[in-house]
Amino acid sequence: MIVGRKRLLILVIALMALAMGIAPAFAQDDTAVIAENLNEPRQLFYDSDGTLYITEAGNAGDVDATGVFGNPLKIGLSASLSVVSPEGEQSVLIDGLPSIEAGGPYYGAHGIYVGDTTIWVITGEAPQEGSYDPEEYPFNMLIGFDKETLEITQKIDLFAAASPLNPSVPNRGNPVDIAVAEDGTVYIPMAGCNCVESWTEADGVQIAASWMDPDDNPVPTTVDIGPDGDLYVGFLMGFPWPAGGARIERWSDGELVETYGGLNTVTDVLVADDGTIYAVEHGLTGEGYVAGRVVIVSSDGITPVMGGLTEPYGLAMDAEGNLVVSVGSASGAGAGQVIAVTAGAMAEPEATPEAEG
User: What are phi and psi of 276, to 5 degrees?
Assistant: First the structure.
């Protein structure tokens, strides 16, 4: 049965990290820190002018609500969107976004995409219906902000379309990432319903793909559009998160055409202009928590790029091909960073043959 795997993933990661004494020393001495003092940073996006956008899940608040499984929790408006200018100046661009506790780590602002006129932000899992004001706390939403005025221009509910999928399970939302195709179609992976939604002005929210096999619980966590126009979907694997059980799928014209396996708890996938597939492995396996890493994935195998990372989550590439990654994604208020990906800072020095086309 499909339950709140993403919730359990982040909670267990946080508890394991605490129990194992993993300190939040994310960057190595020779690694550049791009942004710091972040509140659980998640996805990243480089605009065409070189501005880096960072979603922060926040640290909930003092308002009582009920979780989707009947558990008491707190919510607030502490999630935000931060930016780092091309000159390296860090600031908060948009604040007051909804944030919810998830037993230690938090959900809030997750996905980010910046177009010519609109900043799109995805907000994550909501409390149980009826226990909060959805107008004040817009969870499970695709929110469009005018790029110049920062006024909200769109608020698109992502829960309703997912709700009919496996209605016996309460957590059928929790959007976590966003990608936009050349034709303007927006794709959103929904970790709570094991589906990917699409949205256009003409057709509204639709289910683009879903994974309902009770023997296979991949949990989509990330999407990207490749230079070939194909959709790349990254998954973590459901409990007990078997080592090497996660994967990335490539879809073309609505058909699955390639699968890359052997990965661990994928939270982001980025396909470069030259077709190189990068992925972030958060680090949880059935055998326990291991340091996360950035890898290159291909039909030839998995090549580590940078290892030794604590709770890495999102990845972005600037116009010059430089990569950055968010770390400390479940480490609490002010503990997160964005750091430069330093090639060669690897957990293993060679490609491993787990991925398969």
Answer: -65, 130
